[in-house]
Give the backbone structure.
Amino acid sequence: MCDKNLHVSRASPKPASAEVIRELSKLPIFVQFVGIGKEDFPFLHKLDELPGRLIDNAGFMAVNDIDTIKDAELYDRLLNEFPQWLVKAREKSLL
């Protein structure tokens, strides 16, 4: 999703990104982060486990080389947390 209202400053993207994820937790929006490459992606892990949200509205998966993953595995991993989000979103009347 790309939206001018969700623009994050390059000077300090981390605090603003966390606040955007917190605000999105009040809306019917689930965010899936994908870290590609041989890194730890600590900030994406932090966003995935971010406190202060109405519901857990984010997932994270790391992939060393996306070209080596079969489509079925990729989709399973991409959608891993989505079913739990649907349940919680319905419980909070977001859907």
User: Anything to note?
Assistant: The two ends are 19 Å apart (CA to CA).
